[in-house]
Amino acid sequence: MDLRPLLISVAIAITGLTACGKSTDDTPHALSVDKEAAASSKAAASDKEAYVPPPKLEIPFHKEVLPNGLTVIVHEDHKAPVVSTNLWYKVGSKDEPPGKTGFAHLFEHLMFNGSENFPGEYFEPFQRSGATDMNGTTSNDRTNYFVTVPKGALDMALWMESDRMGHFKGAITQEVLDEQRGVVKNEKRQGENAPYGKAFDIIAKSTFPKGHPYSWTPIGSMEDLDNASLEDVKKWFEDHYQPANAVLVIAGDVTVKDAMAKVRKYFGDIPSTGVQPRIKNWELPTQVKKREVVYDQVPQTRIYKVWNVPAVGSEVEDALELMTSLLANRKNSLLYRRLVRDEQVATSVSAFYYGRQLAGQLMIIVDVKPGQSVEKVEDLLNKELKEFAKNGVNADELRRVKQSEFAGLVKGLEKTGGFGGKSDILAQSEFYFGDPGALIEGVEDYAKVSALEVQEVAEQWLKEDSYTLIMEPKQKYTAAAEGADRSKLPEVDKNVELELPKQKEFTLKNGLKVVLAERHDTPVVLMNLQFRSGASADKNKPGLASVAAQMLNEGAGDLDSLEFSSRSEELGVNIGGGSGLDYNNISMSALKTQLEPSLELFEKVVTEPRFPESDLERVKSNRLDAIAQEKAQPQGLAMRELPPLLFGENHPYGSPLTGSGTPEGIKSITREDLVNFQKTWVRPDNATLTIVGDVTEKEIEPLLNETLGKWTAPKSELPKIEVAKVPRPEKARVYLLDRPGAQQSYIMAGLLMPPWQPQGAEAFDAMTNIIAGKFTSRVNMNLRENKHWSYGARAVSLDTEGQRPYILFAPVQTDKTAPAIKELVKEYEEYLGERPITAKELEDYQNDEVLKQSARFQTKGQLLSSINWQVEKGLPEEYIAEYPQRVSALNKEKVEASAKEYLAPDQFTWVIVGDLSKIKGEVEALDIGPVEVLPAKD
Known about the structure:
six-stranded mixed beta sheet; 35 helices
């Protein structure tokens, strides 16, 4: 079985990529009988060498099929007062007839637009009820909708979900269809406007024969979307969105008895008319021998190599999956070593098995380093693949890959909902295999895959390939005579009870402050060593702090980069550096069973990073290529250009918001700079270690003193970082960046805000969220839902030690650039004037923020992040726990006062990236401030 859906569910609407699967015996084994006999002794040895004991995992469940055909799966998890629902409809883009491509994805959007008994925005009751992890996705095979809510909101969530299943047809109007069609078309434009955005559409058409269900992607075609009639759309709903064609998973703080009673109440009276005929298998397409060149606005050449391989559920699926990890995606993988590290002809290489119900594909993607010959890279790639298929699989390396995957799996099983949560795993297992426990049960099969099996898969499956039609008796379905009251939504229980672990503080013998929060639900320990520095300490070398963070896992102590990576895989530990504007950090995620050796490795990273010269040159070169990538993307370009316009070129916050630095800064970085950075900032008197996980103070303190406790601070005084205050401009300024041929314009605006302070923080957050911070904010509702000019418009306020940049961003279709800017300015002006925050907006925000706390601390990572922030701000432990009370105490007057104090649309600094031949004149005519065209930079 494929481990990756257990770690994270991949569901990209525009490509239709999903990752899921389990080994069965559906596909003939690659070996002939003679070859099996000849290889038996070798296979036995290989099995033993590559075997890794899998973790003991359980997701207990109750499965039941209602009389109307709805499959229901319930899992009890009482560690947090939240419940996740995950509804999978057995319909995806592969079920669309020719001429109606994009219908499944269009319906994903339509069904977020209200139902017959709750017209309007589907998100609305959830966003005032503390919902998290709320989304919908469409793939080639299925459509799903998921959300996590406080347990008191479960009735509301099930009422809403069942209402759009059983009472939706009447809510589909021509107006709603046109609105969401516009949103989907903007999503398609946004995807195609990005570099490489057309790749998967081209791959689908070129690797599958015309008419094959996978020869188009879920986003569909503009022509088919335009031709979709109201009658077509309603017929599509009748055919596919019914109980007998769906799987509902409920996981969280609810009993099986209560969950099933609620499901019968809300879903039991919805009828099923019969499931549409479904393609169950399709002859594997022959290998396509074709080389195609397409020209687009991309910063560097990218090579995609694709082979058609067996579908989800084949016996070779596990071996295919493991083969991709051996080939790429890791520092020690073959193609990364050869193409990126040794030959340095590529900046990145990835590989994955793309499994679906009717067919699978093996993909390898290589970014060619600028200046390198494409033919040379292709020849080297083909040579390495041929050699790998011949004798390239190493049992030790295969074992490390499995151990690393298992470690990630254990760490990922904390959430009940969202991508990769337990509800997602149960739904995927039932959808693909008819057994909710299939994926978890398949872990043992994955652990047993031998090096020989992977070698044989490599030899065969860069090639080869039955059509089977399954006809079953038509089933009869009955609906309950009575169901739920549809006249109103069930009330949401607004009681939230949080039990956060008590924080314990102690100091190591070298003075390092440690904050510990015990959480013993899974055997994992997370650590974060945070120290003042960040981009604000870069001075004349923008990017130094982030390069220093990146170089931390390029070797430490007596381990070089590859040895360090191998040791990390062996232990199942993740150690890495991070960098922000004001702080850098070194983090670790380790299994409890490997905590002591993991800490020893962590100590080496903190105290003995190697910063090897050869690796530095590669990292710098790849960073320069990444900067070129950023400049090729409208959003990346705007994020690079806005900070120096807001703060000034030489200000500590004047470097690009992407954190990648400048080409000049990156080129100037030497190994000595990294060593000095480490000596200057990474010291126990400038750091705090935060720990969350399955460990006690008694267990961890002696281990820390034996490792990090030996680390001493230098005698030199810790430097101070001065962040100068910058005045706002007297009036708005507009800067334009030309991107000829762009299908969209990227609008970004910045405004400087005072540093964060506890007094008034909740009013500030409420004020910014209601105008532009949430899906239901005024700005997003205007540009996306009302005008459908944009796929989404939002604003964020960055958390910094000095003045905070408030960033508004909106990608819009080119011909609506000036009108969109006008609407944005209008929304802010009305918010400050004739249309201030309403009592309902504030109440909805308060309900949502308070109830959202139920899921805020579900994982160790979430808890660690909150404690890090609390420590960084110097706040007491109770500050986090008392947040709901502070939000509940807000009133309209406080929020209005915050808006008038901080917002100033006439002082925005605007950066607009687009085709200036089409937008410049209209933007200038707005007369919102002086307009300047910024020169293109190399």
